[in-house]
C-alpha cells in the first residue's frame, strides 16, 4: 500500500526512518515536495475536481487565469500520481480505486477538460469503488459501491473516559432546561450552513414557545481561508448568526452558539453525547461521517438525526433519520419541530436502526470488503483472460485460404474496415466517426479479393444501404445492410430479406421518437434501421420503453455510441441463412463452401454470426439451400425492398440428408406472383473446423475463435490475403 506521508520530511535521514517504520505496517511512503503538493492537492484536487464532484462547476472568476493554472495543476497532478506508481510498479499488481463521493453525472463531468484522460486512467484499475463493470478497449473494470464507515468503538469507548464524562456534566449544566441542537461542519459551500441557520430562524419565528427552550450549537471548522468565496461565506454566516441572536436572544442567552474552530476528539464526543437533535444540511456530500459519529455517541440519549437527502449517508441512515431537502427552508424548519417533539418510543426505534448500522458498517469492515472484492475481481479477471481467444493465426488462415476451392468472406464494416478514428473523444473525430468511410488502404486488397471468382465477399453491417453503396459500390461483392435485412450484389438491386412474419407496426412511432431526439442532439444521426448518438441515450430509452415499444416485440440494442431498435430475432446471425440462400442462387453455385472467414466488431447481440458456422455445433443449424429458379420476367428492375428471397432456408443434416422446400413468392414492381420452385437439395457447406476462422476486432469478450486488435490489423491481414489471390483463375463455383 502506497501512502503519502502527510508531513514534510525534507532530510534523507528522516525519510529513511519513516520508511522503515511504515514498512512494518506494509506501507510505502511517497515523498512529494511542497510545490507539487500545493499544485496537485490544493490546486487540481481542491480547486478543480472537488467543486466539480460537488456540482459547483469549474472556477469562474478569471477564465483565462483558470485555464493557465489548470494546465500547471494538472501536470502536477499527473506527476504526483506517477510518483506513486513508480514507487511500487508491478504489471501483476492488483489495483483498487476508491472515490469518497458519488461520481457526478455525465453533464457535469463532461465539462472537465481532462475528462477522457482521467476516466481511462481510472479504468486501468481492476476494481473501482463506486452495474457490474465498465468495458474499455477490451479490459473489464468491476464497478461497485462501498459506503465507508467509522471506527464506532473508538467513539463508544471515549464516552467512558473520565474527562469526557466530566465535560458532559458541564455541558448539561450549561444548557439545563434547553434542548441542544448540534451542527458540525467544515465551513464549506456545500455544507449548507446558511440554509441550516435560516431554517432554525424560521422555526423560532413560528414556534415562540421554543425560543428559550432550544439552542443551536454550530461548529464551523475553517477551510481554505485564502479563497475569496470562502471568505464571503464566513462573513455571510456571521451576519446571519448575529441577526438571529439579536432578534431572538436575551442579555443572558443566545439561541445560536457559533464557533469558527475545531474541537478536540474528547470534547467533540462529549458534545455529541449531550445533543438532542443533530442537524446535517449538506447541499452535496459524498458521505458525511458526522452523522455516523453522532449516532455512535447516542446510545444513552437516543437523539434524533435530521439528515440531508443529498448526503451519501442518507442511503444508509435514512430509515432512522428525518430526511430533508436543505434548499426547502420550510421543510427543514418543520423537521426541527418534529424532532424536538418526537416521542421517546419513536426516538428509540429510529436510533436502534442507525446504531446497528454504524456498529456493523465500520471503517475496518469497509476496508476488508474493498480488499476482498479487489482480490475476487483479480481472480475473475484471470479466469476471463484464460477464456480470451488467441490472436488470429494469419499464416494458417492464409495457407488454408489458398488451398480451398470455394471461399466465403463475411466482413463487418464499422470498426473493422473503417478508417482509423482518434479515441480520445475530440469533437472533430466524433464527426469523423459518424461519417463512416472505408479505410483508404483497403481499396487495393478488396479489389484483388473480389476479382477472384472462387471467393465471395459479403459486407454485413448495421449501416444503411446508402452508406454501404457509397463505400463499396465499385467492388464486385455482396452488401448486407441494416443487420442483413437488405441485400444486394453491387451490380444488382436491393432486395429485402425480412421474414414475412415480422410485425413492424411499431416502426413509425419509434422513428418519431428518434427524430425528436436527433433534432435536439448535436452530431447525432438517424438511419432507417434506427441508430442514435450517445449523449441523450438514457432519456431516449425511457421515452421508448414507456411509449412506442412498451408492448412491442422488439429488442433494444445499445452500443457504445448508439441505440438500435430491432424486431425480436433480427440479428446478423439470423440473417445469414437467408443471405447464403440468395448468394447460392445468384451464383448458381454447385460446389460447397469449404472455407469461411468472418471478421467484425459486432455487438454482443450479433455475435451469433460467429457461432452460425461452427462445425462443432449441432448439424441441424447448417443450412442446405433450396432455391426457386426465377421466372423469365424476374429480370425486371425492382425498387428497393420489393424483391424478397425466401423467408426461411431449408435445413438439412451435415452429411446430405434429404430436405424439402416450400414455395416462396417474389414481388417485382409490376405484379406479385407465386412461383413454382425447382427443388435443389444439397449441402451448401462442407466446412471442416480448421477451415473456419471467426475473428472479433477490438473485443476480448467474444464468442469468436480469434482476435485482431484494430482495423489497422484487419488491413494488414487482408493485404497479405490479397497477395495470395490469383485473379481470373478458373472458377469452381
Tell me about this structure.
The structure is a single chain. This protein has 24 helices and 24 strands. It has an eight-stranded mixed sheet with strand order 17-16-15-14-13-20-23-24, sandwiched between helices. The protein has a six-stranded parallel sheet with strand order 9-8-7-10-11-12, with helices on both faces. A four-stranded mixed sheet has the order 3-4-6-5, with helices on one face. This is Alpha,alpha-trehalose-phosphate synthase (UDP-forming).
Summarize this entry quickly.
InterPro entries: Glyco_trans_20, HAD-like_sf, Trehalose_PPase. With 733 residues, the protein is an alpha/beta fold.
User: Given the C-alpha coordinates, what overall shape results?
Assistant: elongated
The protein's oligomeric status is single chain
**Overall helicity:** 25-40%
Euclidean distance between termini CA atoms: 65 Å
Low-confidence stretches: 423-433, 528-535, 616-682, 729-733
Please, what is the average pLDDT?
78
Amino acid at each position: 500500500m502506497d501512502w503519502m506521508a502527510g508531513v514534510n520530511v525534507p532530510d534523507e535521514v528522516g525519510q529513511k526512518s519513516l520508511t522503515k517504520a511504515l514498512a512494518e505496517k506494509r506501507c510505502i511512503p511517497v515523498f512529494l515536495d511542497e510545490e507539487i503538493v500545493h499544485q496537485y492537492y490544493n490546486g487540481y484536487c481542491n480547486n478543480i475536481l472537488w467543486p466539480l464532484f460537488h456540482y459547483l462547476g469549474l472556477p469562474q472568476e478569471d477564465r483565462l487565469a483558470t485555464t493557465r493554472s489548470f494546465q500547471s495543476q494538472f501536470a502536477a497532478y499527473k506527476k504526483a500520481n506517477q510518483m506513486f506508481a513508480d514507487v511500487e510498479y508491478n504489471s501483476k499488481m492488483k489495483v483498487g480505486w476508491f472515490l469518497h463521493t458519488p461520481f457526478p453525472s455525465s453533464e457535469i463531468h463532461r465539462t472537465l477538460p481532462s475528462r477522457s484522460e482521467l476516466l481511462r486512467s481510472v479504468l486501468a484499475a481492476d476494481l473501482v469503488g463506486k452495474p457490474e463493470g465498465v468495458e474499455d478497449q477490451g479490459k473489464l473494470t468491476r464497478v461497485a459501491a462501498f459506503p465507508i464507515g467509522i471506527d464506532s468503538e473508538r467513539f463508544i469507548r471515549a464516552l467512558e473516559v473520565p474527562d469526557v464524562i466530566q465535560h458532559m456534566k458541564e455541558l448539561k449544566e450549561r444548557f439545563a432546561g434547553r434542548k441542544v441542537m448540534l451542527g458540525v461542519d467544515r465551513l464549506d459551500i456545500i455544507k449548507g450552513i446558511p440554509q441550516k441557520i435560516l431554517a432554525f430562524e424560521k422555526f423560532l419565528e413560528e414556534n415562540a414557545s421554543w425560543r428559550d427552550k432550544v439552542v443551536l450549537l454550530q461548529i464551523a471548522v475553517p477551510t481554505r481561508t485564502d479563497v475569496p468565496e470562502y471568505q464571503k461565506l464566513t462573513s455571510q454566516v456571521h451576519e446571519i448568526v448575529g441577526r438571529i441572536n439579536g432578534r431572538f436572544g436575551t442579555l443572558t442567552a443566545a439561541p445560536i452558539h457559533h464557533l469558527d474552530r475545531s474541537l478536540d476528539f474528547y470534547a467533540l464526543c462529549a458534545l455529541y453525547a449531550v445533543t438532542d437533535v443533530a442537524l446535517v444540511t449538506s447541499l452535496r456530500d459524498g458521505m458525511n461521517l458526522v452523522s455516523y459519529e453522532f449516532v455512535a455517541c447516542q446510545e444513552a440519549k437516543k437523539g434524533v438525526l435530521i439528515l440531508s437527502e443529498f448526503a451519501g449517508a442518507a442511503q444508509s441512515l435514512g430509515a432512522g433519520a428525518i430526511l430533508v431537502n436543505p434548499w426547502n427552508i420550510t421543510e427543514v424548519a418543520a423537521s426541527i419541530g418534529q424532532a424536538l417533539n418526537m416521542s421517546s418510543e419513536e426516538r428509540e426505534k429510529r436510533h436502534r436502526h442507525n446504531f446497528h448500522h454504524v456498529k456493523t458498517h465500520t471503517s475496518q469492515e469497509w476496508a476488508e470488503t474493498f480488499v476482498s472484492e479487489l482480490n475476487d475481481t483479480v481472480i475473475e479477471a484471470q479466469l476471463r483472460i484464460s477464456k480470451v481467444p488467441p490472436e488470429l493465426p494469419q499464416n494458417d488462415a492464409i495457407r488454408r485460404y489458398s488451398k480451398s476451392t470455394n471461399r466465403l468472406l463475411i466482413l463487418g464494416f464499422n470498426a473493422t474496415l473503417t478508417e482509423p478514428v482518434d479515441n480520445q473523444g475530440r469533437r472533430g473525430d466524433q464527426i469523423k466517426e459518424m461519417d463512416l468511410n472505408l479505410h483508404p488502404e483497403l481499396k487495393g486488397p478488396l479489389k484483388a479479393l473480389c476479382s477472384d471468382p472462387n471467393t465471395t465477399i459479403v459486407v454485413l453491417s448495421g449501416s444503411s444501404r446508402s452508406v454501404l453503396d457509397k463505400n463499396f459500390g465499385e467492388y464486385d461483392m455482396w452488401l448486407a445492410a441494416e443487420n442483413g435485412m437488405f441485400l444486394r450484389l453491387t451490380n444488382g438491386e436491393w432486395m429485402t430479406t425480412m421474414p414475412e412474419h415480422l410485425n413492424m407496426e411499431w416502426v413509425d412511432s419509434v422513428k418519431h421518437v428518434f427524430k425528436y431526439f436527433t433534432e435536439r442532439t448535436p452530431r447525432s444521426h438517424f438511419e432507417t434501421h434506427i441508430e442514435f448518438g450517445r449523449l441523450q441515450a438514457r432519456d431516449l430509452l425511457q421515452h421508448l420503453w414507456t411509449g412506442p415499444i412498451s408492448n412491442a416485440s422488439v429488442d433494444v440494442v445499445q452500443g457504445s455510441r448508439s441505440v438500435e431498435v430491432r424486431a425480436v430475432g433480427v440479428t446478423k446471425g439470423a440473417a445469414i441463412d437467408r443471405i447464403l440462400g440468395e448468394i447460392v442462387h445468384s451464383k448458381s453455385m454447385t460446389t460447397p463452401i469449404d472455407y469461411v472467414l468472418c471478421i467484425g466488431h459486432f455487438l454482443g447481440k450479433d455475435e451469433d454470426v460467429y457461432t452460425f458456422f461452427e462445425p462443432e455445433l449441432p448439424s441441424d443449424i447448417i443450412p442446405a439451400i433450396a432455391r426457386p429458379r426465377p421466372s423469365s420476367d424476374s429480370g425486371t428492375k425492382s425498387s428497393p425492398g420489393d424483391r424478397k428471397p425466401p423467408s426461411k432456408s431449408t435445413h438439412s443434416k451435415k452429411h446430405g440428408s434429404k430436405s424439402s422446400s416450400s414455395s416462396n413468392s417474389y414481388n417485382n414492381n409490376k405484379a406479385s406472383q407465386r412461383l413454382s420452385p425447382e427443388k435443389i437439395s444439397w449441402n451448401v457447406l462442407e466446412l471442416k473446423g480448421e477451415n473456419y476462422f471467426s475473428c472479433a476486432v477490438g473485443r476480448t469478450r467474444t464468442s469468436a475463435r480469434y482476435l485482431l486488435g484494430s482495423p489497422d490489423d484487419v488491413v494488414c491481414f487482408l493485404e497479405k490475403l490479397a497477395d495470395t489471390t490469383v485473379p481470373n483463375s478458373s472458377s469452381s463455383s
